[in-house]
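Per your request, structure below.
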């Protein structure tokens, strides 16, 4: 592998597409709520078979065409909140006003110029992630800019579009999706290809993420934000990498793609020197009639075939590593899998997996492969085996040409895998069911940046800088603001929402299931003196166990209701009386031990400050 790349010398160029779900009440084109549901809550299912359609110019998109070659049925889980728009049984309503206003605020933060009129477009999508076979999208703003330490990065477009359906699982017939996510408003921010290093890519994504969270109107949590990265080097090709979930992966994704393209170019040079070529695909099941390979035998027993292609001049290169733990042969396998096969075998790795030396020799002889050559085989159902080996042959031919333009998927660890060809303009065409929108920026307020919030929390609310940063950048920032506005002490609200909930989560309490309204009510009960601070944990645990409870009901369930001062004095006096000898001997030295006993006797139903005050008075009486 290539380490310590000189990105300037390589001419590395990268751009980002950031997709962020908006936290609106309704979906983009209907009034369905934007809350996610559990699959077991589904009330019914619908099925679709999707096919590519031609653009207005009569063209078929190559990526859509490849997707359509895989014969699949798509099943969708629907719920009591699913509307006819989501099921593609009625036209969409007008664009959600709240979603548009949030997007305009985001455009303002990005210094982007808002368009005079936003036209809804259809983007062809036939992987099943939308029941209609297309995604609705509109350009809202363009020509913005953000700053990084390595220079400015342009913002080419700010799009507002509908989120896709959530993929649940693969089935024997195809793919099962859930419609709860479909239609959630999604903002897409595209940068110019101004990024020159992996570090700058990370910084740009981090900056955009901070601006998005500054609105207080975006969803938080796994899957609510996704980064796509476009990468190329000067002698390579543009590659789009989809679905980078974690910000920290962006550096590795960009670096590994730059390295992958360098390795592929080196392989190309070696193949050209060897005068490499790709042979014709052929069916060679007879070579493996008595094979000990379980994979091959299983395919043959089920009526499948073994297909092969000779890769002349490829010896040693199919097994060459081009990404960490991924080889050129892995690329070939990715293409075979897209055709429905489980993968490939190739002679850089054989004999192995039950394939013998004699079978390898027979295989080479059958396709006239000699020293310096390689052979790839696929064992699968008849049609699948034929399509898969053709896909392998096509990818091998492109290896001789260099780096293919394509769309790839992000893997854990910063590597990538082949998904499909790069989509083209043929997949976009106008939406005729939704009228254009004329964005009104007159009432749009510029959101306060998170960095500015930190300063305000410190200066105006008295939070220390560390806690202020936790709250401002945390997912409960909006709830914190609501609590302070409702009169809750800022330091108590911040510490409870950040520290207390985190500690309970570490103790396996499902704090994510607690509704924001219940959290706010709990804070207000403390502020009103109805719930001692010491009882907050118990209330949260009760709320986590039963999300339908109100804070007051959870307080009763946990048995931590407030106790008046007379009851506190009576309980403390009893504790001091039981420990009279210790009090007489130690005086205030007995305070710590007796404080714990008093709190235990009151079972968290009185504030620590009140108990402390009364205990000191009782000890002083006897000391």
């Amino acid at each position: 592998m290539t380490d310590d790349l000189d990105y300037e010398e390589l001419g590395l160029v990268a751009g980002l597409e950031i997709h962020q779900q908006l936290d609106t009440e309704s979906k983009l084109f209907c009034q369905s709520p934007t809350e996610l549901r559990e699959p077991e809550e589904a009330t019914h299912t619908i099925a679709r078979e999707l096919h590519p359609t031609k653009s207005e110019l009569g063209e078929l998109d190559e990526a859509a065409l490849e997707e359509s070659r895989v014969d699949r049925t798509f099943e969708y889980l629907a719920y009591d909140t699913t509307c006819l728009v989501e099921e593609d049984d009625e036209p969409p309503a007008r664009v959600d006003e709240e979603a548009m206003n949030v997007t305009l605020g985001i455009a303002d933060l990005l210094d982007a110029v808002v368009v005079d009129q936003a036209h809804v477009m259809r983007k062809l999508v036939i992987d099943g992630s939308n029941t209609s076979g297309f995604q609705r999208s509109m350009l809202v703003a363009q020509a913005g800019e953000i700053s990084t330490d390595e220079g400015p990065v342009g913002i080419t477009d700010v799009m507002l579009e509908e989120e896709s359906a959530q993929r649940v699982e693969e089935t024997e017939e195809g793919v099962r999706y859930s419609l709860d996510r479909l239609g959630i408003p999604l903002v897409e921010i595209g940068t110019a290809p101004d990024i020159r290093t992996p570090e700058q890519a990370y910084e740009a994504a981090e900056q955009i993420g901070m601006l998005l969270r500054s609105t207080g109107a975006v969803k938080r949590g796994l899957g609510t934000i996704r980064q796509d990265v476009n990468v190329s080097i000067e002698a390579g090709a543009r590659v789009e990498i989809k679905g980078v979930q974690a910000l920290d992966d962006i550096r590795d994704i960009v670096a590994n793609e730059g390295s992958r393209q360098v390795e592929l170019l080196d392989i190309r040079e070696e193949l050209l020197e060897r005068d490499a070529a790709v042979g014709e695909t052929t069916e060679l099941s007879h070579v493996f009639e008595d094979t000990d390979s379980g994979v091959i035998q299983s395919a043959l027993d089920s009526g499948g075939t073994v297909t092969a292609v000779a890769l002349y001049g490829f010896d040693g290169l199919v097994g060459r590593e081009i990404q960490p733990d991924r080889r050129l042969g892995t690329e070939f396998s990715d293409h075979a899998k897209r055709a429905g096969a489980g993968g490939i075998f190739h002679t850089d790795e054989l004999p192995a997996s039950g394939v013998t030396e004699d079978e390898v020799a027979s295989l080479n002889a059958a396709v006239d492969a000699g020293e310096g050559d390689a052979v790839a085989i696929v064992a699968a159902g008849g049609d699948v085996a034929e399509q898969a080996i053709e896909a392998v042959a096509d990818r091998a031919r492109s290896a001789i040409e260099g780096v293919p333009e394509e769309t790839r998927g992000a893997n854990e660890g910063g590597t990538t895998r082949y998904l499909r060809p790069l989509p083209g303009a043929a997949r976009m065409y106008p939406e005729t069911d939704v009228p254009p929108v004329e964005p009104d920026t007159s009432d749009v307020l510029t959101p306060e940046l998170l960095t500015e919030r930190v300063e305000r929390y410190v200066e105006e609310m008295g939070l220390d800088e560390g806690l202020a940063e936790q709250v401002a950048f945390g997912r409960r920032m909006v709830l914190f603001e609501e609590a302070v506005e409702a009169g809750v002490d800022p330091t108590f609200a911040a510490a409870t929402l950040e520290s207390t909930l985190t500690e309970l989560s570490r103790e396996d309490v499902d704090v994510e299931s607690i509704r924001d309204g219940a959290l706010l009510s709990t804070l207000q009960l403390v502020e009103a003196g109805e719930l001692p601070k010491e009882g907050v944990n118990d209330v949260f645990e009760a709320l986590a166990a039963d999300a339908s409870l109100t804070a007051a009901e959870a307080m009763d369930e946990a048995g931590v209701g407030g106790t008046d001062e007379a009851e506190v004095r009576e309980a403390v006096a009893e504790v001091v009386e039981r420990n009279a000898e210790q009090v007489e001997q130690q005086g205030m030295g007995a305070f710590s031990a007796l404080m714990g006993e008093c709190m235990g006797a009151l079972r968290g139903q009185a504030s620590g400050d009140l108990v402390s005050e009364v205990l000191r008075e009782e000890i002083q009486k006897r000391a």
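DSSP finds 20 helices and 21 strands in the chain.

Regards,
D.
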